[in-house]
Amino acid sequence: MSGLALPPLKATFVVRNLVGGGVGNFTVEVHPDWSPEGAARFGELIYNHFFNGCRFFRVISGFVAQFGIPGDPGLATSWRLRPIPDEPVVVKNTRGRLTFAAAGINSRATQMFVNYGDNHALDGEDFAPFGEIIEGMDVADRLFAGYGESAPGGKGPDQLELLRLGNHYLQAEFPHLSYIERVEANISAAELSRFVATDIESHNFPLMFKVLLLVGFMAVSFACWASHCYCCRRKKSDELLLSCS
């Protein structure tokens, strides 16, 4: 890809609402040789100022700090329709490395996480790191973790509600979350555009793919609904038989 001819992409995250107050920075260096698709998508997000205002909505001490859902629900939806393909894991998920989150095969889009520890279990689950924090890990360690795991498993933000309502939901119910004010790249906008140019077209999946993706989602949703209805009817029938016996 054309980005390999450029200086290594380094992105400095300016973060607010840190534990202890104030503002701090941490810098990520991107490694296209670790994850070409992941590196290109990250560069594309930086180029589009995607991260401005994003909250670190899932911060679990010793594990990960997850972010990458924008405050605008419409923007979140548009990017979710542009996933990137999976890649082999070239390097391990060790402390300070950044990796895209995923919810299935070829589902990486915008969500990612900072590894707080050496999460080797993630290596076998196809989570491929694309970059690492080279400066300011102490700032990343100060991201607010008081809400813990996301709902429904924990008391933290519900990702579905975040996707539906955006930052209004987080500001109202989880005001202490640390957030990204802006991201500053070490290369110009023109160079950043070159960094991602060769892969942007491959990420613009044809309309038919999007239609099939939507149809598949609707089919799965209907199957789950039908199964739920059947189970409810069966349960009521069993209860009726039990009460009559």
Automatic annotation (TrEMBL):
Q: Where is the signal peptide?
A: none
So which domain of life are we looking at? Eukaryota
Quote the EC number: 5.2.1.8
Q: Which UniProt keywords apply?
A: Isomerase, Membrane, Rotamase, Transmembrane, Transmembrane helix
- Ranges of residues in domain PPIase cyclophilin-type: 13-143
What EC class does the entry list? isomerase
Q: Which PROSITE patterns match?
A: CSA_PPIASE_2
Ranges annotated as spanning the membrane:
207-226
Task: List the PANTHER family hit by this protein, alphabetically.
Answer: PEPTIDYL-PROLYL CIS-TRANS ISOMERASE CYP38, CHLOROPLASTIC (PTHR43246)
What the record says about family reads: Belongs to the cyclophilin-type PPIase family.
Q: What's this protein's name?
A: Peptidyl-prolyl cis-trans isomerase
- Organism, by scientific name, is Polarella glacialis
